[in-house]
Amino acid sequence: MTHLLQSWRFWALAAAGFAALTAILAKLGVSGVPSDVATLVRTVVILIFAAAIVVASGQAGGLAQISGRSLVFLILSGLATGASWLCYFRALSLGDAARVAPLDKLSVVLVAILGAGLLGETLSFAAWAGVALIAAGAALVASGW
């Protein structure tokens, strides 16, 4: 079990499962609620949840160890996350979760492109083929074919 909890694949699959739940629960929750208000409620819950985990796990001292560079990038990441959530909830309030979520997952394609272009990460031909299939699949699901 310890080995499983140290696996990035385990946590990535768990994230995918929770992201799927997020889409369904958010679609149900945004009904009759302004999408920006729904995003605020979700964000407050996440803030409280994350703070509780940091405190309970004894990691609160790590806040003082964040470098200025890391802090800038974490703040920018937080702003990008907020913008993403606002857009996502607006999309869910206007469209079907089964069509919104696949387009949102085009972030996988963008991360592959940006990771290679900006971070110098490399993917094999097979991995790039998978990225292309993700893009094609998202387009097919969103188009309603």
Describe the overall structure.
Helix content is 79%, strand content 0%. Helix 3 (35-56) packs across helix 4 and helix 5 packs antiparallel against helix 7. With 145 residues, the chain is mainly α.
Topology:
Layout: H1 2-5, H2 8-29, H3 35-56, H4 68-94, H5 97-104, H6 107-119, H7 125-143
Helix pairs in contact: 3-4, 5-7
Key features?
145 residues
**Strand elements, count:** 0
Poorly predicted ranges: none
- End-to-end Cα distance, whole Å, is 42 Å
Radius of gyration, taken over Cα atoms and rounded to an integer in Å: 18 Å
What is the chain-wise order of helices and strands?
HHHHHHH
The largest sheet, given as strand count, sense and whether it forms a barrel, is: none
State which percent range the strand residues make up: under 5%
SS-based class: mainly alpha
Number of helices: 7
Mean pLDDT: 93
Shape: globular
Estimate percent helicity.
over 70%
